[in-house]
Amino acid sequence: MLRFGIPALFVLIWSSGFIVAKAVAPHADLQEFILARLCLTALVMGAAALVAKAEWPRGRQFGTHLIAGALMQGVYLCASYWAIARGMAAGVMALLGALQPVFTAVFMVTARGVRFGPRTWLGLFIGFAGVASVLAPKLASTGAGALTPLTVASALFSVVAVTAGALIQKQIAATDIRSAASIQNLGGAAVALVVSSLVGTGYWDSTPILWGALVWAVLVPSVVGTTLLMWMMRHGEATKVTALILLAPPLAAVQGYFFFGEILLPLQFLGFALALGGVLLARSR
Predict the structure, then answer these.
(1) Which residues pair with residue 204 across a beta bridge?
(2) pTM of the model
(3) Could you give phi then psi for residue 101, rounded to 5 degrees?
């Protein structure tokens, strides 16, 4: 039961991350929201680590966790939420986030000279063709819901940041997830503080919807989602995690349709299938 229920719950939680951004946008400046979310998550995970008397990273490991968190939490969320606030559909942003393995492959080729086989290259080509199919109609349109090159660039930059953070994190020795998450969220909060001071408006209407979304974002995607992810990794589900994350974009698109009336064209749904299929093909051996 757990092996079926936990993956299903994880996908549902993971897909809700960008739906939260859409819900919060009318009620608060999203950069201020990210700052509050990351600070509270750092406190919750830090308290859990202290209660459990978990070991904390020290010295160079502490600094590496801060940098990884600054990229994976701070830059990623600030840039992606900025794009969402300017018209990026939740499902489309979730799709771009799911392309992290493709961006990792591109980095391995360009920076480290790693050679891939024809299947990987075909997967990369299909993946990017799918993304182009998803983004093209919104870039070509005008008026409400239209995207600009700057919006798309911000969304893609967020994926580059989370990819870089993930590569840095792979170099960190195994650490208790609670203490590591606390430090990484502090690193992300530092970035959010800088961004909010530069572009934040300070708007915060203190409605129940806003406070409820903040509690959800901290406890569910950040705390419960991370815990479920680690549970799956430690119980032999590591090879399935990528496939599960690839289910989040279409689920987020469905939620965006029902909650916010976001409509995707048939070409964009085809692009979803191409992009996610390309990721799976690129990762296959």
Answers:
(1) 28
(2) 0.83
(3) -60, -35
Amino acid at 121: W
DSSP string for 65-116:
HHHHHIIIIIIHHHHHHHHHHTT--HHHHHHHHHTHHHHHHHHHHHHH----
Note the pLDDT tens digit of each residue in 119-173: 777 877 787 787 777 777 666 665 555 678 888 899 889 988 988 888 887 777 6
Rounded CA-CA distance 111/282 in Å is 18
The count of structural domains within the chain is 1
> What residue has token string 């993956």?
7
Q: Which residues pair with 36 in a beta bridge?
A: none
Helix (H) or strand (E) holding 19: helix 17-24
Helix and strand tally (H, E) in the chain?
14, 0
Task: Express each pLDDT in 46-80 by its tens digit.
Answer: 999 999 998 898 888 899 999 999 998 999 999 99
Q: Are 134 and 92 in contact (CB under 8 A)?
A: yes
- 204 three-class SS: strand
Q: Which two tokens stand for residue 136?
A: 């093209």
Residue 34 is part of which domain span?
2-283
Residue that the structure tokens 């990229």 belong to: 71
Place of tokens 């409605």: 207
Q: Tell me, what DSSP letter sits at residue 87?
A: T
Angle 6-240-49 (CA atoms, 0-180°, nearest 5)?
55
The answer to whether 199 touches 45, Cβ cutoff 8 Å, is no
